[in-house]
Amino acid sequence: MASVTLSRFFIFFTLLPVITHSIPFVLFHGVADSCTKKGVKHFTDLLSEWSNTQGYCIEIGNGVWDSWFMPFEDQVEIACEKVKSMSELNQGYNIVGLSQGNLVGRGVLEFCDGAPPVKNFISVAGPHAGEASVPFCGTGLMCVLVDSLIKLAIYSPTLQEHLAPANYIKIPTDLDGYREGCKFLPKLNNEFEKNATYKERFSSLQNLVLIMFDKETVLVPKETSWFGYFPDGAWDPILPAQETRLYIEDWIGLRTLDEAGRVKFVNVSGRHLDISDDDMKEYIVSYLIDENTPESPVLTKSTRQQHSSSSDENTPKSLVLTKSTRQQHSSSSGFIRKLGGQQDLQLKVIQKL
Ligand SMILES: *[C@@H]1O[C@H](CO)[C@@H](O)[C@H](O)[C@H]1NC(C)=O
Ligand SMILES: *[C@@H]1O[C@H](CO)[C@@H](O)[C@H](O)[C@H]1NC(C)=O
């Protein structure tokens, strides 16, 4: 009796036309970069192609210049308005953040009132807990200028208003200066004055994927990609996320998410943003593929639910396609790319065959 009901149920749903649709993703690039640069464009296109979802690189102002000099509060406001104006996103979307772009993404997630829901947040080398040095930028004139400015007075109103990275630099031995002067990161991390709404929004993520590079030199310490950081008042030892106050006191809901099994701490091999194709597929693309997206003509949401709720041996073979499709993806290997533009403000895509 039960099996008859089940198979009727099953047939009923497989005959339905495919009406589910995948949710898109938006990408926020790093400092000294822009959506029109080859590296970022290629990266967005690849993610889109491999996940079979629509991807949008969201530009803030003119890209390169504004990523350096526009304060984060303003960057987030622009991103927030853009996200709200895109009707493509109103069923929800995923965020992919590259380097400092992660802080724009988190700003949108936490601060943007009336925005569509964010489902998965995939962070590639984000300075989430702060950055303790000048992002390495090479020997260009702008970099020399920026470096000397930073050493002068990182928490002065002038630098806070005119140099974006100053908004997330956290010198562990100058926490008074940071508390008084830093205009963005303390708010984003609910560090001093807490706002329950930010925590609630951050905790609503379905998955938070935190990708750290083992040969990271741009982010100091590299563990900031996982919300790890220096202890208050000292330069050592670097605390893993779970031993920071942000986590223990659950300022923004990282602990809540982690205890619910929704944070993936990912360690990949490579320098800042040099992610391999295989790692892109495994740790980014797999979170962009919507569960509801059919990957074969007969694979619908309902049939998959049916599949997982019964161990019926008569289940059609097409239902197990997800797995093999993904394996196919990750078995190919390709080139390693340079993103982020820190190297003399140039973006390069390195073909390594
Ligand atoms: C907290 O943030 C929300 C959303 O931006 C805002 O509406 C609210 O006024 C804030 N609450 C406080 C106490 O600042
Ligand atoms: C990350 O990977 C590198 C190289 O595979 C390894 O040496 C390092 O211990 C790993 N770090 C963590 C925190 O897992």
TrEMBL record:
<keyword id="KW-0732">Signal</keyword>
<protein>
    <submittedName>
        <fullName>Palmitoyl-protein hydrolase</fullName>
        <ecNumber>3.1.2.22</ecNumber>
    </submittedName>
</protein>
<feature type="region of interest" description="Disordered">
    <location>
        <begin position="296"/>
        <end position="335"/>
    </location>
</feature>
<feature type="signal peptide">
    <location>
        <begin position="1"/>
        <end position="22"/>
    </location>
</feature>
<dbReference type="Pfam" id="PF02089">
    <property type="entry name" value="Palm_thioest"/>
</dbReference>
<dbReference type="GO" id="GO:0008474">
    <property type="term" value="F:palmitoyl-(protein) hydrolase activity"/>
</dbReference>
<feature type="compositionally biased region" description="Polar residues">
    <location>
        <begin position="299"/>
        <end position="334"/>
    </location>
</feature>
<dbReference type="InterPro" id="IPR029058">
    <property type="entry name" value="AB_hydrolase_fold"/>
</dbReference>
<keyword id="KW-0378">Hydrolase</keyword>
